[in-house]
Amino acid sequence: MKIIIEKNYEDLSKQAAEIVKQAIQEKLNLVLGLATGSTPIGLYQKLIQMHKQNVLDFSKIITFNLDEYLGLPANHSQSYHYYMKENFFDNINIDSKNIHIPNGETKDVKVFCRDYEQDIQNVGGIDLQILGIGSDGHIGFNEPGTPFNSRTHLAKLAQSTIKDNSRFFEKEEDVPKFAITMGVQTIFEAKKILLLASGENKAISIAKALEGPITSQITASILQKHQDTIVILDEKAASKLKRKY
Ligand code: GLP
Known about the structure:
Helix content is 30%, strand content 17%. The chain is α/β, with parallel strands linked by helices and 245 residues long. The N and C termini lie close together (11 Å). The structure holds 2-amino-2-deoxy-6-O-phosphono-alpha-D-glucopyranose.
């Protein structure tokens, strides 16, 4: 793992955007794994800026999102479909047929999950996966205890995640209890991974994920074994790391 510590969120986002830019410039039909949450917003804004300045062409990229809440329609303001449209896709020249996001309204979750894996395989796997991290160390919605060999599946959200994500909903009861998420193995098979974390509330999970034992209790800890993972932190998220980077 390569660990980069930036002064603040702005610099973290800039650095992340440079890495994504380079990957797209090297491979115009890059298969890009995308994350939601507040962390990658700055990265998406920088990429949109680059597009507006004619520096980046997204017309050939293929995207796969990590996860989606079960039961939320795509037009629900807290669905990840809606988030991606608003924060990224509507502002770049991506071809809508190249966008893949788990369908939170599928009638057959099992078949959907199997097909999602197949779709990833059909385009040769994910080249670059963007990740955030949950305060309990999750990646995607792979909560503590999710096996490392898991693939796209239906996940039950941990109580702490429901609480964390309730800030986006009117009340905690409105947060869906389940989600469809890429599995740990699905994520791990990405050729390159870019993990972003910002702020003090991520410091403990980052310390455990990067310096603690590799355990399915902190699913992000598997990234210690990944051959090409870059972690970009701001100083607050890095504040509980023991080693100096
Ligand atoms: C959700 C998502 C994760 C994301 C995490 C952190 O639980 N499923 O993919 O990394 O939130 O979100 P934030 O960046 O808002 O802290």
